[in-house]
Design goal:
Number of strands: 22
Shape: globular
Largest sheet: 7 strands, mixed
Helix content: 25-40%
Oligomer: single chain
Strand content: 15-25%
Distance between the termini: 15 Å
Radius of gyration: 23 Å
Number of domains: 2
CATH architecture of the largest domain: Alpha-Beta Complex
CATH topology of the largest domain: Polyamine Oxidase, Chain A, domain 2
CATH class of the largest domain: Alpha Beta
């Protein structure tokens, strides 16, 4: 059981601020899914835990909100795949409302009226791809098998704490030897593929396999989601495999929609945490992390309230945590420089639509099965690369890559009877604009997205009842994602594994004793994964067990 602190009366400091007399084993800053996972695991271990969330609702960027009457939107994140199966099991999330509906298809319409449809039926996929290339149809299953092998090679590393390359401790050396043994146990093709994926562009790698523009375009999009790089930029092949590591019921590269929207991911984790005695508070913004003699001692809220704690775990991104909540003088200069250099500029936006009818695509009319999966506006690699060119020069894409879903086709409770919601992920939308600002150009972006999609589904503009445009500035300002980066930092090779967020500090600890990070800015990175939160909880438990904190 965790160390229990006595309850004391509320007192006033000389400055007049109120100190909450209750003290905790751990305070978790941020009620996003990773912070809630950390809290749930610590609560499950018997620790006294408090979660503090700045917004009015738990979930961070993984929320469902009724933005317009009767229409419930998954405002930011919109599909589930990467959530670790061990977290689902350990916290028994299905008993707390977590229910996933498989999303098995991708529909890619083309401007000339053709389309590519890929689903869960391998024979159907062969026929569909054969419309464009018989060679690609034969190569496609072989590609998928190899990607699954690489995902299985990399997958176990998601749940491990990265080794510290500067440490010669026995535990660290065992970890390094285990890692070496794990990779040496893989076959030569899988190892070679992994090495190449870490350095190549997604487009170059796919060029080696396929010749069909729309197939390569749609597949390369998995390498640029949330990343300020184009499909021809080195390093994007890793992001592609990052998305292959998602599982639904043990199937790699499987995606799903959570019944009730993505907010049910956070709500189910929060319910599990509360069942272990974890306390949660919303509308509780942390102004700073309190320290004394190089040790975290609690937090101070924006209203002046101070809450003491043995440990503080921040699920906010590294820049917000170490450059905004901690005095820089409490941190080593090289650490501060590393955090300042950590890349967090976002490249994504979101447009949510309430519509009176679903989109009717010229290439495949009607509300068929193709609307129960993803719709990808990605006609070719060149199309996405041109969209990136606009962003490189400081503007949002004139014709963006769009990843579209109609969640109400899967879960009618998300919209009033007969009506629908549409979730549109948009890339590219750089945080820094060369001309104007996001508050002035928000609706211009919304118009661009609708106009682009209307080229494929002409009924869309007149079907729209309401529109919400979520810009990178909104992601920063409202959801606390510095620079609007949906992964709390780029998934580039130099910001992964034992270098995330900075070399020497990839074990969830920080130079301040008792202060940890547990969000996507830590290994293994972004997505609705939960692994950073679970891994951080494990390290906190280790330190508490030997009274290092």
């Amino acid at each position: 059981m965790g160390l229990r602190y006595p309850r004391t009366s509320i007192e006033r400091t000389e400055e007049g601020t109120v100190i909450d007399g209750r003290s905790y084993d751990a305070i978790v800053i941020g009620g996003g899914h990773n912070g809630l996972v950390t809290a749930a695991y610590l609560g499950r271990a018997g620790r006294k835990v408090l979660v503090l969330e700045r917004r009015h609702i738990l979930g961070g960027a993984t929320v469902t909100e009724e933005v317009f009457p009767g229409f419930k939107f998954t405002v930011c994140s919109y599909v589930c795949s990467l959530l670790r199966p061990e977290i689902i099991r350990d916290l028994d999330l299905p008993s707390h409302g977590y229910q996933i509906i498989p999303v098995e298809s991708t529909f890619s319409p083309l401007p000339d009226g053709r389309y590519l449809y890929r689903g869960g039926d391998s024979e159907e996929n062969r026929r569909e791809i054969s419309k464009f290339s018989k060679r690609d149809a034969e190569m496609y299953p072989r590609f998928g098998q190899l990607m699954v092998k690489v995902a299985r090679l990399v997958g176990p590393q998601l749940a491990m704490t990265p080794p510290d390359l500067d440490s010669m401790s026995p535990g660290n050396l065992r970890k390094l030897l285990g890692l070496r043994g794990h990779f040496l146990g893989a076959d030569e093709e899988t190892l070679a593929t992994f090495a190449r994926l870490m350095t190549m562009s997604s487009a170059d790698y796919l060029d080696e396999w396929f010749e069909t523009d729309v197939l390569k375009g749609t597949m390369s999009a998995s390498g640029i989601i949330g990343t300020f790089l184009g499909p021809r930029s080195p390093g994007t092949a890793y992001v592609l495999i990052h998305h292959y590591m998602g599982e639904v019921d043990g199937a790699f590269r499987a995606w799903g929609f959570v019944r009730g929207g993505m907010g049910m991911v956070s709500e189910s984790i929060a319910a599990a945490a509360r069942s272990y005695g974890v306390e949660t508070r919303t509308g509780a913004e942390v102004r700073r992390i309190l320290t004394r003699d190089g040790r975290a001692t609690g937090v101070e809220l924006a209203n002046g309230e101070r809450i003491p704690s043995r440990v503080v775990a921040s699920s906010a991104d590294p820049k917000r945590t170490f450059l905004g909540m901690v005095e820089r003088s409490d941190l080593p200069q090289d650490f501060v420089r590393g955090i300042e250099a950590y890349r967090t500029e976002g490249s994504s936006a979101k447009v949510n639509l309430a519509v009176k009818e679903p989109p009717n695509f010229t290439a495949l009319p009607g509300a068929g099965e193709h609307l129960r999966g993803a719709v990808s506006i990605s006609p070719s690699v060149d199309y996405i690369e041109k969209a990136y060119d606009d962003a490189k020069h400081g503007d949002f894409s004139k014709r963006p890559y769009l990843d579209v879903m109609v969640p109400s086709m899967l879960d009618p409770s998300m919209a009033p009877p007969g009506k629908h919601i549409m979730s549109i992920f948009v890339q590219y939308a750089p945080f820094h604009l060369r001309r104007g600002d996001w508050d002035d150009r928000r609706e211009e972006l919304g118009d661009t997205v609708v106009d682009t999609l209307a080229e494929y589904a002409p009924n869309l503009p007149k079907a729209i009842l309401h529109r919400q445009v979520v810009t990178p500035l909104d992601l920063d300002r409202e959801f606390g994602l510095t620079g609007g980066n949906i992964f709390q930092g780029e998934l580039w090779p130099h910001q992964l594994f034992f270098m995330r967020p900075v070399p020497g500090w990839a074990q969830y600890r920080s130079p301040i004793k008792g202060l940890y990070i547990c969000g996507s800015g830590a290994h293994p990175g972004g997505g609705v994964m939960g692994a950073p939160g679970a891994n951080a909880a494990r390290e906190i438990q280790k330190d508490m067990a030997v009274r290092r904190v």
